[in-house]
Every structure is written in C-alpha cells, then in structure tokens.
TrEMBL record:
Biased composition, class Acidic residues, residue ranges: 194-234
InterPro entries named among the record's database cross-references: PduO/GlcC-like, PduO/GlcC-like_sf, YBR137W-like
Species assigned in the record: Candidozyma haemuli
Region (Disordered): 190-237
Name of the protein in question: Uncharacterized protein
Matching Pfam families: HbpS-like
GO-annotated biological processes: post-translational protein targeting to endoplasmic reticulum membrane
GO cellular component labels: TRC complex
Length: 252
C-alpha cells in the first residue's frame, strides 16, 4: 500500500484534475470527519511515510473537526501551510493543487497578479481538497494534508476521501451484488410487511372491542338513568296522592 501519484502526471488538464477531485459524500458531520481523520492517520502508518504529516479537517464556517499529526515531529510551519492551502479551497472551491496547476497556465506566476490574493495568506500547493456532498452545489469542508511533496499530499487526501466514500456506500448500490442477497432482502421485506399488516389488524380489532365496550357502558348508564327517573316519578305520584287524600280527609 502506498500513495498513488501516477494519476496526476505533469501536463494533466485542469478538467481532468477537477474530475478526479470531485468526490461527493452522501453525508458529512463530526462523526464522518472523525472517521476521515483517523483513517488518514492509520493509512499514514500503513504506508510507512518517510515524514510525519499534519491532518486537518475544517468546515467552511471555521469549525475544526480534526487536527492531528500522524506521528510526532510535525512543526508549526505545517500548521501555517494547512491554513494557507485551506483558505485557497474555501476561496475558489477547488483543491489547492488545482489552483496551482491553473496558475501554471497563466502568463504570470505571481498570485497577486493572477488571482488577486496574497501569497502570505494563500498557497496553491497540493494538499487541501474540498469535501463535497451529493445533491449540494458547494464545498462543506476541506481535508488538508501537510508534510510531503505537494503531489503526494494531494493524492493522499483524495485516496482517503475515496476510501471513506466507498465504505459508506450502501451494499445494494453494488451492481455485482449476489442474487441471493437480493432474494434475502426481499424475503425480509415481505416478512416485515406481513408483520405490519398483522399488527394493524390487531390494532383495529382492539379498537372495535373498545368501541363496543364503550357503547355497552353508555347503554347501561342510559338504562340506569331511565330507571332512576321512573322511580322518581312513582315516588312523586305517591306523594301527591297521599297528600291529596290527607287534605280531603282533613276537610271532612
């Protein structure tokens, strides 16, 4: 395992450079950033890089999600390079390597004249690449590497993003997915559908039973009320009859 810089030979067109760095993730947050950063650190160990590198992941609003050397011995100068290359990505929406290749195509090699930016604050050397999302036209963050040759910094950053993108793609997106896997998925989905239907039927039956119970209770309450009313009427009639009888008896 090593850094593949063969994809960026001298003379590669700007269109090809832009195409190779157009890696779009389906999602990006602090957890994804941590995965990207820790993967980069692990790959730096796996590749047995001759120099330590500084790994940085920062969003366009200035929030740093990951900032760590691959191993001891990075220096403050690496931090400065990270900041300058990252600013270039956020300013132009392309990798710092792309902007360096674009500068080569111009008549001047002076950043101030070519892009109206200061070489103190910006760097057009490879190492900072944009992090993009699917269905979103813009840059959400940048992965920046400092410590190697600019072509290696650039290629390493892209390899990490590509590896993270592939690892997060859903299995059903693979065109060569085993048919048995698809069948199993369909069976599972059908079973889930049957369970949902059974649950709905049970809920409907329970609701019907509750409604019937409520109706029965209401009928019983109405019957009790009617009986009470009848008893009250009978008592009232008896009282009137008794009272009338007593009154007539007194007159006599």
């Amino acid at each position: 395992m090593s850094i593949n810089t063969n994809e960026f030979p001298p003379g590669l067109s700007l269109e090809d450079v832009a195409s190779k760095e157009n890696i779009q993730l389906s999602k990006f947050d602090s957890d994804i950033a941590w995965k990207i950063g820790t993967l980069a650190k692990q790959r730096a160990i796996d590749y047995r890089l001759s120099r330590p590198i500084l790994i940085d992941i920062t969003t366009t609003d200035g929030t740093t999600y990951f900032h760590s050397p691959s191993r001891p011995s990075t220096v403050k100068d690496n931090d400065i390079w990270v900041e300058r290359k990252r600013r270039t990505v956020f300013r132009f929406g392309f990798s710092s390597y792309y902007m360096g290749q674009k500068l080569k195509s111009k008549d001047t090699k002076n950043l101030e004249e070519a892009f109206y930016i200061s070489s103190i604050d910006y760097a057009v050397h490879g190492g900072s690449v944009p992090i993009r999302l699917k269905n979103f036209d813009g840059v959400v963050a940048a992965l920046t590497i400092s410590g190697l040759k600019q072509e290696e910094d650039h290629a390493f950053a892209l390899q990490i993003l590509e590896e993270v993108k592939i690892s997060r793609e859903p299995r059903y997106g693979n065109r060569h997915m085993d048919v048995s896997c698809i069948s199993s998925a369909l069976i599972v989905n059908s079973n889930i559908g049957q369970e949902e239907e059974e649950e709905e039927e049970e809920e409907e039956e329970e609701e019907e039973e509750e409604e019937e119970e409520e109706e029965e209770e209401e009928e019983e309450e109405e019957e009790e009320e009617e009986e009470e009313e009848e008893e009250e009427e009978e008592t009232s009639v008896k009282f009137r009859v008794s009272f009338t009888y007593k009154c007539f008896y007194f007159v006599e």
